[in-house]
Amino acid sequence: MRMGRTLAYLAFASCVLLFVVKDRAADLNGEEHRGSWAISKSDEPGKVQFALMEHRRDHSSNHQSDWPASSFPAVDFSKLGRQDVRFTIAHDAGKIECEGFLDNGEGAGVFHFQADANYPRQMASLGFPVDGDKQFEMAVQDVSLAFAREMKDLHISGLDTDKLIAFRIFGVDKAFIDSIRAEGLNISEADKLVAFRIHGVSAKMIHSLRQAGYAPDEDTLIAMRIHGASPEWIDDLKRRGYDHIDLQKLIAFRIHGVSPEFIQKLQGMGYSHPEPDELITMRIHNVTPEYIADMRSRGMKDLTIDKLVNMRIHGID
Prior knowledge:
Blueprint (H helix, E strand, L loop, with lengths): L1 H22 L9 E9 L5 E9 L4 E9 L13 E10 L2 E10 L2 E10 L3 H7 L6 H9 L4 H8 L8 H10 L3 H9 L7 H10 L3 H9 L6 H10 L3 H9 L7 H10 L3 H9 L7 H9 L4 H9 L7 H9 L4
Antiparallel strand pairs: 1-2, 1-6, 2-3, 4-5, 5-6
């Protein structure tokens, strides 16, 4: 519903923009950034959903995320009814000047981006070249000069202009990096830091794993999050008698469906503690508790795991 409202406001603002563009055709050139904006309610307290749709002769782009309501100091979101609004979002990269309307705290309008002339030179001096398109993106994401200096001082490899933008989009900041490094993981690659944020690798997760006796590397942590091998899930396996299993085997457990429930059913059938490799092999070859029960109902007793796997391999159903 919220997304629908935002799209509707953007569509309306786009129509308004076409009129504005035609009316100001003499002022336009290929280097300017103009477009439409829309604001709708957010599920997060103290925030609004803010969308910017840029319209260029050769392409369009859409930026949409939750922003603190305090980012719009001239706007009263609590005011009922319709109101005309003008506000400016001022960041180091430039100013996004907006005008339009709100109706009960939601609305749309048009914007014009005024780039800061000194910003590209200042960023280039830090080692981050900036062109016109990137400068607009960096204004939207608030890639400030202070943030660029801060990231540069952290000695991150592979850090370029695009990564700075990605850091802002996904919330990679000094506090996050410091929290990861404080857990003994000296992470220094920009791509890995972004992947940590995208997949939800946190300092809390690393701390839990280290307390359990593990020393995971960056790729293993990312793989664990991708496949859902969380510390809570590992604790559940521990209660089934599987303590300190190799992390790669735990990832294989998740990939192939070796769950605490699967292990519990096997234990209830007399397989007290199959080896991790046996459990993975059983799942790969679809040796399920239901299959075992079916074979037993046909008079096949004392079936070892090796026998059950061989039966599946040879098509004995």
